[in-house]
Design goal:
single chain, about 1000 residues, alpha+beta, ten-stranded mixed β-sheet, eight-stranded mixed β-sheet, 29 helices, about 30% helix, binds zinc ion
Length: about 1000
């Protein structure tokens, strides 16, 4: 079946489905007996640029003698030109509503990274709000059908007595500015409007509203807009910081849960036992219900949900089309594969995820907007497309948002019993997972060498609402049919001396073939629980076919959390696992940390647990050395890189071990092993003024593990001639710009672009500030940075900033090959450890899965200039014999061919005698040649999860390189070790480089070839 046909079939099917649950016929529009607020209504009409950009639901505002309209705070109507309220103003209005009517209640749901409040506003009839607690008790049983023994009759009774919760979230994306005013007015309408249409919503659904999700970013955006109003005609500073850490990626955090806004919305959604999470965005004309989206759909959600997307979405499109509003559509090219979006919290927790893209002007100006042909042309899913050109106002946007939401709420309220029953069914089917599709459980073995990272991932699952059990005795399960087992890193064939993985390996019983015995203490994530779906989605492997008809991948294609955390996770289909003796873990999963033995020297095994870096910086006055070889002490085996701590008090060590969950061994005497000092490095994180989105995830990682750093910009580096006097390590995380842009910065046309705290812009500055965002690193910055490395500094670069370092001559001998076919779209690939002696590899075994997004393809050469590492063409010329036979020149004896030099793909070719003779000055001295730490695995082992095509272009190439330069080092990453709080298994590569900053040459074997 062709893709088009399939689409048509889906559409037809769901028109039938919508018909089957047709809503009661209530005419949308005002109640003739209720007076309207004439002045407000007049302004709505004045600010709406065309009558067809409005609807009978929003072209008036009912009047109320007691309840204030948004004008009370805004001084004008919602969506008025020039009016963009701060979050606090939106809250003030919501609280005015709460005071004025029993139909509104305001709740604090948490704070942001910068300490600002987040709220949720409940709106419904006073009867519904008076019975919230009893209703929640009923919804709790529907959400966890184990409480009613999965009894459908009981569920039906609960459904009959319950009312649903529809949760709406606004302005997660700070440049998309319309939702707060639309939601202020929506709350007013829901509380006040006596039309039959709105009344039926109020009496059947609790509408829960978080009017501002990204509060920190909202307030900065309002500052920017106010600056723009005060500087008419000038270029506006771009909103470089949305949230404290990241920009649009705050809507990719529903996997890793690193941001407070994600946790606050998640807790609100699950705490209220809501049925819908409807997230509002504004980047597509005029209203795109993109939840229905396009394939491939996420493979772990319940088909009941994907049907619900269609049912509600198509009703929405149909209703707004009937109102005569152009540009309302569904489908489009958004695939629904990744579970990382905020709305997906509902999809993975038995609710309904929904998302609107409406049309915003990034501010409150009314503007002439021209859409692109791809936007205004009619296509099968957009029969009434947006106009090619129209005057567009924030009020138009607010009309569309509110009209869409009101029709959704009305439809949902009319069919509330259907959706509540579906909510129950989805929850029940999640519990029945082991019996139906499986698996039965995921097991985290009790002898994993990285208990700290294991506990960290389990806590993330707990934050998702997942229950964790812990085995009280060993148990054996059938693993014969476990497809993922072959990909487990611990079955990789070792190529070199791998470090031992645990200081105290627990001997596991020899299992019979096809079975596996897990030790006591293993963690079991049972799939017979209400939120099994999110655990399954996060722990499973992803496969996106290179031949998928979807060619525009919207986001990452893989997120397998066990692999990214460098942990062993076993997917078990054998239902016997559910009978394993185990207890539910109460409270957070934590590793026990204490001191074993006695003595004033303390030993800590290096197992690549991230807590080790926290420990080092916490014990800032202690002497900490790293062992350069594995050793045995206190009856334990310790890996290369293990910490030997002296000059620390037992109390301090005990406290740190307990807090961080680290096992410490006290001994009387330090082991006899080669060591070097781990001094607390002075770290700087350098950002550009062009983009801080991706480096924000690095700050998340550093802050989480309490690695102190100075936050500096390329402009600071341009000014600071003696960087080495201040810093030991400069981290240049991905900057989303090419090398030239990093140096040049933004064009210097027009006016300066300040990012500063002023009375007009009280929320700008702070994270960092500048009088003018335009200048980049410049030539002086480039020189200062190179001097920093020459004087002994360590520069850490990643992906595009690694490209910057290579292109600007920081790393002689490294070049980057152009990718022609490689498609590694946010996937997970296998790396192999090449140099286990390098401090960067401390704690790692011989293989590691890493996040990859078409990273640079590195080639190495022993010659600094020319010969850029391109592989020698060794294919033979046309001649006699087969492809591997020598040709024979006729009429003379065969000449002896000298053996041609050979090297692995990740290595530099050995120097030839010719090169030594003729390019002597270009040959890189042995001590300054790039040292490869990790490489991409061979083609057959490379793919782990997601979408990989053309992988042979990058297979076997170097992935992490330490390039000595002068007295310092440049570290190059092709993969991104710190991404979206999901890649905690590769954080330690970066932390190792920081911990060992002045001894990165440890264990280095020089090769003069
Ligand atoms: Zn958006």
């Amino acid at each position: 079946m062709t893709r088009q046909l399939l689409r048509c079939l889906i559409v037809c099917l769901f028109f039938v489905a919508t018909g089957a649950v047709a809503s009661a016929q209530i005419k949308p529009g005002r109640d003739a007996n209720q007076p309207v607020d004439e002045e407000y209504t007049q302004k709505i009409r004045a600010y709406t640029t065309e009558p067809f950009f409005n609807s009978p639901l929003t072209d008036y505002l009912p009047a109320s003698p007691d309840v204030p309209t948004p004008k009370a705070v805004l001084g004008d109507v919602a969506g008025a030109p020039g009016k963009l309220p701060y979050a606090e103003e939106v809250y003030r209005y919501m609280r005015l509503l709460e005071k004025a009517t029993p139909r509104v209640k305001v709740y604090t749901i948490g704070t942001t990274e910068e300490g600002r409040e987040m709220i949720a506003v409940a709106v419904a009839s006073e009867q519904l709000l008076a019975h919230l607690d009893e209703n929640r008790a009923r919804l709790t049983k529907l959400a966890d059908p184990r409480m009613i023994n999965l009894n459908d009759d009981e569920a039906d009774k609960l459904v009959a007595a319950s009312f649903p919760i529809y949760y709406i979230t606004g302005t997660i994306h700070s440049t998309e500015t319309g939702s707060p005013t639309a939601l202020m007015e929506l709350a007013y309408r829901l509380a006040v409007d006596d039309s039959a249409y709105v009344k039926s919503i109020r009496e059947s659904v609790v509408t829960l509203i978080t009017p501002v999700v990204e509060v920190d970013g909202r307030n900065r955006m309002v500052d920017i807009y106010n600056w723009h109003l005060a500087h008419p005609g000038e270029n506006v500073p771009p909103l470089i910081y949305w949230g404290h850490y990241v920009a649009h990626d705050n809507n990719r955090d529903a996997i890793g849960l690193s941001l407070k806004l994600t946790r606050n919305v998640l807790n609100t959604f699950t705490g209220w036992k809501a049925q819908v999470l409807h997230d509002l965005h504004e980047s597509v004309p005029y209203l795109y219900d993109n939840t229905i989206g396009d394939g491939p759909y996420n493979a772990w959600v319940d088909p009941i949900l994907t049907d619900e997307w269609q049912i509600i979405g198509w009703n929405n499109v149909s209703e707004l089309t009937k109102f005569g509003m152009p540009g309302v559509f569904a489908h489009g090219n958004f695939d629904t594969w990744s579970p990382g979006y905020l709305m997906f919290i509902a999809a993975t927790h038995n609710g309904i995820s929904r998302l609107y893209e409406t049309f915003g002007n990034a501010g409150a100006d009314t503007l002439e907007r021209t859409t692109s042909p791809g936007e205004y042309q009619r296509t099968w899913y957009r029969q009434n497309p947006p106009l090619p050109k129209a005057k567009w106002s924030q009020r138009n946007n607010n009309n569309y948002q509110q009209t869409g939401l009101l029709t959704s709420l009305h439809y949902f309220g009319n069919n509330s019993k259907l959706f509540l029953k579906n909510f129950y069914l989805k929850s029940k089917r999640s519990i029945l997972k082991p019996k139906n599709e499986g698996p039965a459980a995921y097991v985290f073995p009790g002898d994993d060498p990285r208990p700290g990272n294991q506990a960290e991932l389990l806590r993330t699952l707990q934050a998702q609402g997942v229950e964790i059990h812990r085995a009280t005795a060993p148990f054996t399960v059938n693993t014969k049919s476990e497809p993922a087992a072959g990909r487990s890193p611990n079955v990789m064939v070792s190529t070199g001396p791998a470090p031992t993985t645990s200081p105290s390996p627990i001997p596991s019983a020899t299992p019979s073939p096809g079975t596996r015995t897990f030790p006591a203490g293993s963690y079991i994530v049972r799939m017979d629980q209400p939120y099994s779906r999110i655990a399954d989605a996060l722990l499973d492997y992803q496969y996106w076919s290179p031949n998928d008809p979807q060619t525009e991948v919207y986001d990452d294609t893989a997120w397998t959390m066990g692999e990214l955390a460098n942990l062993q996770v076993s997917r078990i289909t054998d239902k016997k696992v559910l009978d394993a003796p185990a207890n539910r873990v109460n409270g957070d999963v934590r590793t026990a940390g204490n001191i074993i033995g006695s003595g004033s020297t303390y030993l800590v095994n290096h197992n690549a647990d991230n807590a080790l870096v926290t420990l080092r910086f916490r014990l800032k006055d202690a002497t900490v050395d790293a062992a350069e070889e594995p050793f045995e002490a206190a009856g334990q085996k310790f890996n290369r890189g293990s910490f030997i701590i002296r000059k620390a008090s037992a109390d301090e060590i005990q406290r740190a071990a307990g807090d961080l969950g680290i096992q410490v061994y006290a001994v009387a005497e330090a082991p006899a092993v080669q060591t070097h000092a781990l001094k607390p490095a002075r770290v700087a994180m350098m950002h550009t003024w062009i983009n801080t989105q991706d480096e924000g995830w690095w700050r998340v990682a550093f802050d989480q593990f309490q690695v102190p750093y100075a936050y500096i910009s390329t402009q600071d580096v341009a000014r600071e001639e003696n960087l080495k006097a201040k810093y030991d390590v400069i981290v240049f995380a991905p900057a989303a710009g090419d090398a030239a842009l990093i140096v040049k910065g933004l064009p210097m046309y027009g006016n300066p672009l300040p990012w500063k705290t002023t009375s007009l812009t009280p929320n700008l500055g702070k994270i960092d500030s500048t009088d003018d965002m335009r200048p980049g690193l410049g030539w002086s910055g480039l020189m200062n940075l190179q001097k920093f490395v020459q004087q002994g500094g360590v520069l850490i670069t990643v992906d595009d900033t690694a490209g910057f370092a290579v292109n600007y001559g920081f790393t002689p001998g490294v070049s980057i090959a152009r990718a022609n076919r490689l498609k590694a779209v946010g996937d997970i690939l296998r790396m192999r450890t090449v140099d286990v002696m390098s401090p960067i590899a401390y704690g790692y075994a011989d293989s590691l899965a890493m996040y990859c997004a078409n990273g640079p393809i590195f080639n190495l050469s022993n010659v600094a200039v020319g010969g850029g590492g391109r592989r020698r063409n060794t294919e033979r010329f046309t001649g006699r014999g087969g492809p591997t036979d020598p040709d024979i020149v006729q009429g003379r004896p065969p000449a002896e061919v000298p053996e041609s030099p050979k090297a692995e793909t990740w290595e530099a070719m050995p120097l030839t005698a010719e090169q030594r003779r003729y390019s002597g000055g270009m040959v890189i001295p042995a001590a300054e040649r790039p040292r490869v730490i990790l490489r991409y695995a061979d083609m057959k082992d490379l793919f782990v999860s997601g979408l990989l095509d053309g992988g042979d272009e990058i297979a076997e190439h170097a992935a992490v390189i330490d390039v000595p330069s002068g007295r310092g080092h440049v570290v190059l990453f092709s993969t991104n070790p710190m991404w979206r709080g999901q890649t905690k298994g590769s954080y330690m590569l970066v932390f190792n480089a920081i911990l060992n900053f002045d001894n990165l040459n440890a264990g280095r074997k020089l090769n003069g070839r």
